[in-house]
Amino acid sequence: MNIKKELEHIKRIYDFELTSEQVQALDIAIESLDNEWVDVRDRLPSESGMYLVTVDEGYRKHTTEWFYGTSGEEGWDEDYGYENIIAWKPLPEPYVRSDEE
Q1: Contact 77, 68 (CB under 8 A)
Q2: Nearest-5° angle of CA 86, CA 90, CA 96?
Q3: pLDDT per residue over 16-63, tens digit each?
Q4: b or e along 14-53 (b: 16 or more beta carbons within 10 Å of the residue's beta carbon)?
Q5: Beta carbons within 8 Å of 76's beta carbon, 6+ residues apart
């Protein structure tokens, strides 16, 4: 079962019956599912950009951001350690204070 697709289906079908709070809750749930780690053995990014990655150096694992390119030579930017990237996910939106909106 694809939970994200099911939640999107519920939102689409029942949109006229849902309160604004329920729609907001569904949006938050759907967005959180987009932030799951993806194993590089399963899939690579489909768009160029910066991604949050987990790097396995053998003696430790750490998280950092890394560039993935899809035009020209497709793949991770070949800085030191790129071959040790084991998982990725989109970067979150930058934090915005409520008084700055």
Answers
A1: yes
A2: 140
A3: 788 888 888 877 777 766 668 888 898 888 888 899 999 998 999 998
A4: eeeeeeeeeeeebeeebeeeeeeeeeeeeeebeeeeebbb
A5: 53, 66, 67, 68, 82, 85
